[in-house]
Design a protein that fits this description.
The chain has 230 residues and is an alpha/beta fold. It folds into 2 domains: 138 residues, 2-enoyl-CoA Hydratase, Chain A, domain 1, CATH 3.90.226.10; 77 residues, no CATH class. The chain is 30% helix and 22% strand. It has 7 helices and 11 strands. Strands 1-2-7-8-11 form a 5-stranded parallel sheet, with helices on one face. β9 and β10 form a beta hairpin. α4 packs antiparallel against α5.
């Protein structure tokens, strides 16, 4: 079975969740699942939260991030509270972040805590999961890859490393005084640094797709078919 997820934009969360809900019975019978995130430049972590149970085998370590508490960044995050597509859980997180920024200006404040994700229900099917990515897979998609690769039944496939756009994230864009240019910069820093950087080179796959392969999906399907028959 193939799931193509071109974006983790929070505006697509409902569509992703509905796709998983409507296809739940099919996924539950599929011996192998391919999640295709090629070209997925990211979005919000909440968009992929319902994908994780499909591949979960063991507790997943999730490292949090800190945001720089400038007045401009506080206003930037406060604007998120007006977005109707912002999930309730993220709304509470953003409100706590804005409050912390206002109380502790001009320093890093935590966006979220380091956590270990424990799920009580394990899915026997699919028995093997492939995640296929490319150089265009970045930001939130790289966070998904970090979590997915902690599953014993998940294999990451790619020809290249990922984009390398996660260590400094939650990108904000402002117009320069000339009005001719916009400046984009990260407002947050991962607590994986300096020991587990992603931006330096991007994430490597578990299995490198050979350069002479012309159809990546066919290659991955063949690899998974051999795996589930063992």
């Amino acid at each position: 079975m193939l799931l193509r997820i071109p974006s983790f934009d929070l505006r697509q969360k409902a569509a992703i969740d509905n796709l998983l809900l409507n296809g739940a019975r099919t996924v539950a019978r599929a011996p192998a699942l391919i999640i295709d995130v090629r070209g997925n430049g990211g979005g919000g972590d909440a968009a992929f939260e319902n994908l994780i149970p499909l591949l979960y085998t063991d507790p997943i370590k999730v490292i949090g991030a800190d945001a720089w508490a400038s007045p401009g960044n506080a206003a930037y995050f406060h604007a998120f509270l007006k977005l109707p597509e912002l999930p309730a859980s993220d709304r509470d997180l953003v409100q706590r972040l804005v409050t912390a920024m206002e109380r502790h200006p001009n320093q890093f404040v935590p966006i979220d805590d380091d956590t270990v994700l424990h799920l009580t229900e394990l899915h026997a099917m699919p028995r093997a999961v492939a995640v296929i990515f490319d150089r265009g897979s970045g930001s939130t998609t790289e966070e998904f890859l970090l979590q997915a690769r902690q599953s014993r039944k998940t294999i990451l496939f790619s020809r290249t490393r990922s984009a390398g756009a996660l260590d400094y994230a939650n990108v904000r864009e402002v117009a320069l005084p000339s009005g001719r240019w916009n400046f984009r910069f990260g407002t947050s820093r991962s607590r994986r640094l300096p020991f587990e950087p992603v931006d330096r080179a991007g994430l490597a796959p578990t299995v490198w797709i050979p350069p002479d392969v012309t159809d990546e999906l066919t290659y991955v399907r063949g690899y998974l078919a051999a795996r589930v028959q063992r």
